[in-house]
Design brief:
Elements: H1 3-28, H2 35-57, H3 61-72, H4 78-91, H5 99-105, H6 107-117, H7 119-122, E1 126-134, E2 137-144, H8 146-172, H9 175-201, H10 211-229, H11 234-237, H12 239-243, E3 249-253, E4 259-262, H13 264-270, H14 280-286, E5 298-305, E6 308-318, E7 324-333, H15 335-361, H16 363-378, H17 385-416, E8 424-428, H18 429-446, E9 450-454, E10 460-464, H19 465-481, E11 488-496, E12 499-506, H20 513-517, H21 540-550, E13 555-559, E14 565-572
Parallel strand pairs: 9-11
Antiparallel strand pairs: 1-2, 3-4, 3-7, 5-6, 6-7, 8-10, 11-12, 12-14, 13-14
Length: 575
């Protein structure tokens, strides 16, 4: 056998051997994304090499064509689509392609295989074939048919799509995976460069098909990538699936505290589409987040970003010499947890406040009622009519104040436990205000306080009528309570856009700045005696605030010490 033929034989056998070895290695890793399909691509290339060996060394046209038929029997037409399937499978971490997609892309290769095996009947793949002597080689000179071009175009399209998919993976992959993918791409492109040279010069300068030899080089690179870099191992392929699908934010820093990796969740948290390569301090400075990189190996703290609270865990990454190579920052969103903790604290505070009121504020009025009624009962005959009338009046006032305290306490308690119903509806608030004014007239007449109102005939609002009634009643009661005898109270309402603003103004004792700051805080519920010594729980205004906000409004107060107060709250109009 001439030396040239020996060289070709050795190269073809080498290509076939490496192809079957790669198939074996990848079959052992078949559960890794991309491995199974590329393994079958290597098997198809093995069939291709075996068929071409027969074609090259056969001495008759019949046997040479038999070699061609072997090449096309799950060989040449199937390598490109298996390559495409491998790229898609690797990119999607094993979730695709679906069976129907495989069937769809296999239609052209199956037709090509059938047409080649029946070529003598229609000559759609090869119109004519004849033996020619080219130097030391006896080769087939082929005049190709139109289906041959269809198969070539389809094959290159599949290869192109697969290559683009992997190129995108290269650009998006991390450094430790990029080498693997580059080797994969180079190994896969080599056979097609060889094939392109053969197609261009098949009947002139390139009569020997060097495509299988290209596969020999390709399989060497793939083998190196598999054994050296773990190509098709599950960890590199699953990087995007695991890291980028995490709900918590993740940042990887280098030793200079530059961002070398960041997952989509963290990009959303920062509101930046691309922070790679930026210094962490610069990124955090842009979003007004206060954080210093700790010097310790492991650090945990809380950080505020964009109105949300995150539990930040910082851990060091070491190289093989135990030197710090970078840091990993994990951001866990604990906004809801912090909110729940605050709600729990508020609930506990409300519970403590409730027990305090029951134990103290409600106990004292009952002592007064018991004391006055006991004196009236035991000394009734010794008391004159005027004295008996005074004791009866004191008992009545204590009972009335205690009743109001109980009403507020019960409504506030139901509001805190979520048992109060919320039933917004359309209604005219004017009659409700007049009813509340009439209800406050008894106490205002005793103190000779005049209540004036300037209301339009109809003010339609949408709110919970019972809640708004409680708000107006409490604000009027407070105004009477803290206004000196002979004073006056003004009640007014005005529409502004989609809100109605209701104001209750008095010329009473007023409040200082410190009291105003603590007015609506449950932990600082202010219990002040009225101008006639009226008692309260300090819950009335807190209840007003909660009821107004529940109805989509707001409440505010303006006050000057010894100069009166004006409480204004808003509720939505019908429109």
């Amino acid at each position: 056998m001439p030396i040239a033929e020996q060289v070709v034989l050795y190269l073809l056998l080498t290509a076939a051997s490496f192809s079957i070895i790669i198939f074996y290695l990848l079959s052992k890793r078949r559960n890794a994304p991309g491995a199974l399909y590329y393994g079958f691509a290597a098997l198809s290339s093995f069939i291709w090499c075996v068929g071409y060996t027969i074609e090259f060394f056969a001495l008759s046209l019949e046997y040479k064509f038999f070699g061609v038929q072997i090449q096309y029997f799950f060989g040449i037409p199937f390598v490109p689509i298996l390559w495409l399937a491998a790229a898609v499978n690797y990119k999607t971490s094993g979730s695709r392609p679906f069976l129907r997609e495989l069937v769809f892309i296999s239609v052209v290769p199956v037709i090509t295989m059938i047409l080649l095996w029946t070529n003598n009947a229609h000559h759609l793949v090869y119109e004519t074939m004849k033996l020619v002597q080219s130097g030391n080689f006896l080769l087939i000179e082929k005049k190709v048919g139109f289906w041959y071009y269809i198969n070539v175009a389809y094959s290159y399209l599949a290869m192109l799509i697969g290559t683009v998919i992997l190129l995108r993976s290269v650009f998006r992959s991390k450094d430790i995976y990029r080498t693997q993918l580059i080797l994969f791409l180079v190994a896969s492109v080599l056979p097609w460069i060889a094939n392109l040279l053969y197609l261009i010069g098949m009947n002139s300068f390139m009569r020997v098909d060097i495509t299988p030899i290209g596969f020999a080089c390709s399989t060497v690179l793939i083998g190196f990538a598999v054994l050296k870099y773990g190509l098709f191992e599950i960890v590199p392929a699953a990087h995007q699936l695991v890291i980028e699908s995490m709900n918590n934010g993740l940042i990887v820093l280098d030793t200079q505290n530059r961002i070398v990796d960041i997952n989509p969740a963290m990009r959303n948290i920062l509101g930046k589409s691309n922070a790679l390569g930026s210094y962490l301090k610069d990124v955090f400075k842009e979003i007004n987040a206060d954080f210093e990189i700790p010097g310790s190996d492991l650090h945990q703290t809380e950080i505020e970003i964009g109105g949300q609270t995150f539990d930040l865990a910082v851990s060091a990454v070491y190289d093989k010499h135990r030197n710090i190579a970078g840091r990993i920052l994990n951001f866990y969103n604990i906004t809801e947890r912090k909110k729940s903790e605050k709600e729990l604290r508020d609930l506990n505070s409300a519970k403590d406040k409730l027990f305090s009121i029951i134990a103290h504020d409600l106990k004292n009025p009952f002592f007064g009622i018991i004391g006055f009624s006991e004196i009236l009962y035991e000394d009734y005959n010794e008391l004159n009519d005027e004295e008996r009338k005074k004791f009866a009046k004191d008992i009545n006032e204590l009972a009335d104040n205690t009743h109001k305290m109980l009403e507020n306490l019960l409504e506030w308690s139901r509001q805190q436990t979520g048992r109060i119903e919320f039933n917004p509806k359309n209604f005219d608030v004017t009659p409700l205000i007049h009813e509340s004014i009439n209800a406050a007239c008894h106490q205002s007449k005793i103190k000779k306080i005049k209540i004036n109102s300037s209301l339009s005939e109809t003010i339609n609002v949408r709110a919970d009528q019972n809640m708004i009634n409680t708000v107006i009643r409490n604000l009027l009661s407070n105004a009477v309570k803290f206004t000196m005898p002979g004073g006056h109270i003004e009640v007014s309402a005005a529409m502004n856009g989609t809100k109605v603003f209701i104001s209750i103004k008095d010329n009473g004792v007023g409040m200082d700045e410190d009291t105003l700051k603590r007015l609506f805080n449950i932990n600082d519920a202010i219990k002040s005696s009225g101008t006639f010594g009226e008692k309260g729980t300090g819950l009335g205004l807190i209840l007003c605030k909660e009821f107004v906000e529940r109805n989509g409004g707001s409440i505010s107060v303006q006050s000057i010490l010894d100069n009166g107060s004006t409480f204004t709250f808003s509720i939505p109009t019908v429109n």
